[in-house]
Design brief:
Blueprint (H helix, E strand, L loop, with lengths): L1 E5 L2 E5 L7 E5 L4 E5 L5 H22 L2 E8 L6 E5 L4 E5 L8 E4 L4 E5 L6 E6 L2 H14 L13 E9 L3
Antiparallel strand pairs: 1-2, 3-4, 5-10, 5-11, 6-7, 7-8, 9-10
Length: 165
């Protein structure tokens, strides 16, 4: 079990299902990982664990940010942020009357970009929850029963990564 605490909160991650030895080294300044008798597939698990721990540190120090653009050809997509940045309502997608409501996962907030038109900004400390929230928004606006090469309307991730502060 790895628990990381920083200025943006605390994140926990459980690695008990992997045969990896984790410990603090260098006086508690670095996390070390070790695996015995590993082939290349098992070594890839070791690298993944190191990447997950690195993402935990980045999340509590800087936060992760996903920028999404509203793309439309004719009917302008209208996105309203409600519930204090916890819910987004998407209206007028392809001229449809249905209102699509997407709830953000815990710890993720959504805002409209102040500088760019038709851009949503998701931010959160946990990279997985932030990315999954972006995927939920993208999947709520998929074009059905039409040629997707022609109908490119939707909400797409334009950039993502750790916030630079």
């Amino acid at each position: 079990m790895v628990e990381v605490t920083g200025k943006h909160g605390s994140l926990k991650r459980n690695f008990k299902h992997l045969p990896i030895e984790l410990w603090l080294g260098n006086g508690g300044k670095e996390v070390k990982a070790r695996m015995y008798f590993a082939k290349s597939k098992q070594l890839s698990m070791l690298r993944s664990v190191c990447s997950h721990i690195s993402n935990l540190f980045d999340g509590v120090e800087k936060k992760f940010e996903y920028k999404m653009r509203l793309v439309y050809a004719h009917f302008p997509i209208n996105a309203n942020i409600t519930n204090g940045g916890k819910t987004v309502e998407i209206r007028n997608f392809l001229g449809e009357k249905i209102v699509r409501t997407v709830h953000m996962l815990p710890g993720v907030t959504i805002d409209k970009s102040p500088s760019t038109k038709d851009e949503l900004v998701l931010s959160g400390a946990d990279i997985e929850l932030t990315g999954r929230s972006a995927a939920l928004i993208h999947q709520s606006c998929l074009v059905k029963d039409k040629d997707i090469r022609k109908f490119l309307d939707g909400i797409y991730v334009s950039s993502h990564g750790a916030k630079e502060e």
